[in-house]
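Section 4.2 – Deliverable D4.2 (structural model, holo form)

The reporting period included a commitment to supply a predicted holo structure for the target in complex with protoporphyrin IX containing FE. Inputs used:
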Amino acid sequence: MGGMESRTIPRLSDFHLSEDRGFLSAEDPLEFLPPYFSPWIDLARDTPKLLETKQLRERVHKLPLLDHTRLRGQQEWYLARVVLSMIGHAYVWQEGEAGVPDFLPRSVAVPWYRVSEHLGVPPIISHHCASMVNWKKKDPNGPLELDNLQLLFCITCPRDFAWFFLIPIQIEMHFTPALPLLVQAQEGVLEGNSKLTKDALTAMTPVLNKMKLTLGRMKEQCDPEVFYNQFRYFLSGWKDNPALPHGLIYEGVSDKPFQFSGGSAAQVATVQCLDEFLGIRHDDRPGAFLMRMRDYMLPDHRNFIAAVGKGPSVRNFVSNSDDQELRTAYNTCVSLLRDFRSLHIRIIASYVIIPSKRAKGHKVEGLANVGTGGTGIMSFLKSVRDTTAAALLPDVSGP
Ligand code: HEM
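Output (structure tokens):
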């Protein structure tokens, strides 16, 4: 990743990133669209119940084709994408892998495709739409914190599904102070100011610690068996997926099927941003997968990550310096990111590997192995974690 190092420091405002919300948008997400769009909102709200009785497809068949060009403002476009993604995935996977439809009806396909095109992302559920713009505060005057957050729209299993997507929002909030710090660290490199870079790296330590602590809260309200057997497959896409080997036809958009990857936390911008900042370069295959996941991020986010990677190299600066404190500060960040990834691997063991062994013969068995899933997951994640660990720099040699 990365490429030629430049002397340009990314400015947050150029990428519409705010100092107090980071990759979350500066305004709170909308909960409602204008009344004209109530068929979408009502259907998305009813989705978990309609799936229970297997009536969701019927409701979609009655959905009118609405004019998406009547959406106004970024937040309305975001919300439209949230609800259409929930409805679209519920439609495709209502019957599990056994009963996939040949095409997605135009009343969902056309606006989903066009709204996503407008936002510069593929028409499929992504981490951004399921999590980052899909929340509200329980107490509007309370803090933007996990325990005060509620997910707006779910596909199924509301309690567990919501928690799964709320955890990343809190992680995002922890990460937010790191954005100006990484800019500061690169400024230090540009100015040859070791202290500026060191202070920034040191101030990032609590950020990374908090991210890991919150990741560790996943089990509080998201049960591994519910995740694995009841909602994971609803997030699946139609690329490299044996249940939809040719992809999916979006009726009214094209007669040819499209192939897109499903939702994955590998689309989280924060972690890839940290990799670029710390100069961590992943091996060919894992690196290519992570790079591909950037296509599912908002253009501003993927462009910012690329700009950080092209900015002055903190890693080169640290490795060329004989300031041991600077090196320790850098190494602390790298080791905390490694620890975050090690914890993530332990989580996958209980959320994917163990349930997959129990699920033999279950109706969604095949869907457990899509994407980088199944046995490929662990070697992928371990490679990414080991490359992170390998980025640790040796101590400065004595005089
Ligand atoms: C129950 C919770 C979770 C499960 C089961 C899970 C599962 C997975 C899986 C299977 C992958 C491999 C890529 C793929 O197949 O799509 C992955 C990658 C990834 N996940 Fe998670 N994930 C969970 C929670 C999280 C959270 C909360 C975050 C951060 C907010 C996160 C961040 C990542 C990242 C950054 C990657 C890419 C690999 C890396 O950079 O280390 N995951 N996850």
